[in-house]
PDZ domain-containing protein
Amino acid sequence: MKTVLLILFVALTALTAFGANGEKNFGGVGIDGVAAPDGQITVRQLVAGGPAHVAGIKAGDVITHIDGKPTRGSDFRQMVHKRLRGRAGTPVVLKVRREGVEKPLTFTLQRQQLVITAPKEK
């Protein structure tokens, strides 16, 4: 019985992971962010050539809105999994606050499948 439960757990885990990130049409914007205590997301780094990088989002930018909904007070994991990620080719609108810029900046990005490669060793 334990073996059957273990196999079932592994199968469900694999299906969940496949559905979330292994899906053929799954996409993202190429942002690695850090959640602030208030829920806003500070961009830590970008995927080179990803939608956010190409659009001009920079490390240090603070994402204040995703598709018009404020990030303040939101759950970080929910924002990433349900609002930033999605079907490749679909749009997402980010409003960001950038140090030294008075008004918020708005970026309309197209999610895309991202290929992240490890740096080559020399």
